[in-house]
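[Automated response] Your request has been received and processed.

Submitted sequence:
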Amino acid sequence: MKTTEFFTKEQAEPVWYLVDAKDKVLGRLATRVADVLRGKHKPTFTPNADMGDFVVVVNAEKVRLTGRKMTGKTYYSHSGYMGGLKSTTPEKVLASKHPERLVEWAVRGMLPKNRLGDRLFTKLKVYAGPDHPHQAQEPRPLNAAE
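Generated structure:
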């Protein structure tokens, strides 16, 4: 009788993927990126181990949102003090200095809410423009429509 084989993070061979977010729908892009970070695209997927790959997202400032999400969706953060609730919309985030946060927040919300999710999130590199400093790793293109 065969038993289930579990893999460890030492057995994982991480690969670097390059994703161009230009004119991609944010939710569909974030879902695909989260699956690759988690390692669900590999046959060696183990839910409790970091089996995922690195993902570099470029052109985050050109990501698309469908429907009325650009003005109707609201992101909240709280400082912990009385009256410390701050809110913003995707439209304001894209117009700010850090438009890559929109992609980061979308992907982070799709990862596990524990220490494993924190480790996986460090494998995500998001850049607003087309340039990135990760040339030495030879990133592979990742088709977000797969």
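Summary generated for your ticket: Residues 26-38 form the longest helix (13 residues). Residues 17 and 140 are 5 Å apart (CA to CA).
If you did not submit this request, please reply to this message.
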